[in-house]
Design a protein that fits this description.
The chain is an alpha/beta fold. The protein has 15 helices and 16 strands. The chain has an eight-stranded parallel beta barrel with strand order 4-5-6-10-11-12-13-14, surrounded by five helices. Strands 1-2-3 form a three-stranded antiparallel beta sheet. A three-stranded antiparallel beta sheet has the order 7-8-9. It is globular and about 60 Å long. It starts with 5 loop residues before the first strand and ends in a 6-residue tail after the last helix.
């Protein structure tokens, strides 16, 4: 195993890249989808199941783990990998997105953010230095800078102020992170839906010579076309030899179109959240198992899938579980969804390596558009 953090591009097809991030705890094949493990658990899944779907890395949430069970407690218990029984790479976000979503409970200054817990109202302070300290206590492999994420739409002056503050916080996070062999701190490009601000942010972060770069502040209310425009503007400004991570994205269609613009890493709660609400992602598009059309359907979600949840259980049974609010329904559909996302990523990687990404992306999209199998 390597003792260093590295990234290399193995193949390109247009702007789409196949590569690998190598860390002491394992190699992450890119483009990669990171299942979200907000509170030290990928909801409704066992960790060996998550690994079995093909995941190389998961995401942990600094804000939520700080509140429960507490970063210092996690450290005393051996770190997040040991506590959650996930020995492979973990990326932790910085808490910046939660700071945005808690705008009514927070006070933001140059120094950092003070806010009250959404659980019990207890006061907390999050500074760039404290965010990196917490992520270090969690022992995560990729740590994110603290940033201010602006909800869209927003005024130009507000987007610029938040972007400039995020750059100053990135410098402080870089100093606090120091030199940690085998680990990385990523900067986060901000700038809302403004091309000039996105370029300024990307160029300033590039000058800091970080180990990786994220694009943040997208998929926060703007149309997909705006997100893709910002990626087309931002990605060429980022180093070709560093990983690019689009935070909080997204749907399978978002992923396909973002890979085409040069993104390497993704995370999103969508597949797990959808699974808990009766929605399955498949190669034929989304399937709502709450619908009565499935009540007497003995067929599986996808007879060609290698995931038991999709292949071995009837739609009738899945429909029954969902409508009865049985926990197993959420478990099986989450399993299906994460397996589908990981199969999609492998499909993308294979297509890039073969120089056939455009053709394969079109075929995948056609499969979604064709819709589910006809009802019995």
């Amino acid at each position: 195993m390597t003792e260093n953090f590295s990234f290399r591009v193995l193949a390109s097809d247009g702007n789409a890249r196949r590569g690998e991030v190598v860390m002491p705890r394992g190699t992450v094949r890119t483009p990669a989808f990171m299942p979200v493990g907000t509170g030290g658990t990928v909801k409704a899944m066992y960790m060996d199941q998550v690994r079995g779907t093909g995941a190389d890395i998961i995401l942990g949430n600094t804000y939520h783990l700080m509140l429960r069970p507490g970063a210092e407690r996690v450290a005393r218990l051996g770190g997040l990998h040991e506590l959650a029984r996930w020995p492979w790479p973990i990326l932790t976000d910085s808490g910046g997105f939660q700071v945005m979503s808690l705008s009514k409970l927070r006070k933001l200054t140059e120094h950092g953010v003070t806010f009250r817990s959404h659980i019990d109202g207890a006061p907390y302070e999050m500074t760039p230095e404290r965010s990196i300290e917490i992520q270090g206590l969690l022992d995560s492999d990729i740590q994110m800078q603290l940033d201010e994420c602006t909800a869209l739409p927003a005024e130009h002056a507000e987007i610029e102020r938040a972007m400039e503050l995020s750059l100053r916080w990135a410098e402080r996070c870089k100093t606090a992170f120091g030199d940690q062999p085998g680990k990385a701190m990523f900067g986060i490009v901000q700038g809302g839906d403004n091309p000039e601000l996105r370029v300024r942010s990307a160029q300033a972060l590039k000058a800091m010579d970080l180990k990786g770069y994220a694009v943040g502040g997208l998929a926060v209310g703007e149309p997909q076309a705006v997100m893709l425009d910002m990626l087309e503007i931002t990605c060429p400004e980022l180093p070709v030899d560093k990983p690019r991570y689009l935070m909080g994205v997204g749907t399978p269609d978002d992923i396909l179109k973002s890979v085409a613009r040069g993104i390497d890493m993704f995370d999103c709660v969508m597949p797990t959240r959808a699974g808990r609400h009766g929605l399955a992602y498949t190669r034929r598009g989304k399937v709502n198992l709450r619908n009565a059309r499935h009540a007497d359907d003995h067929r599986p979600l996808d007879e060609e899938s290698d995931c038991p949840a999709a292949r071995d259980y009837s739609r009738a049974y899945l429909h029954h579980l969902v409508r009865s609010q049985e926990a197993l329904g959420a478990m099986l559909l989450t399993w299906n969804n994460l397996a589908y996302y990981q199969r999609l990523m492998q499909d993308i990687r294979d297509a890039i390596a073969a120089g056939k990404f455009v053709e394969r992306a079109a075929a995948i999209s056609e499969g979604w558009a064709s819709g589910d199998i006809p009802a019995l």
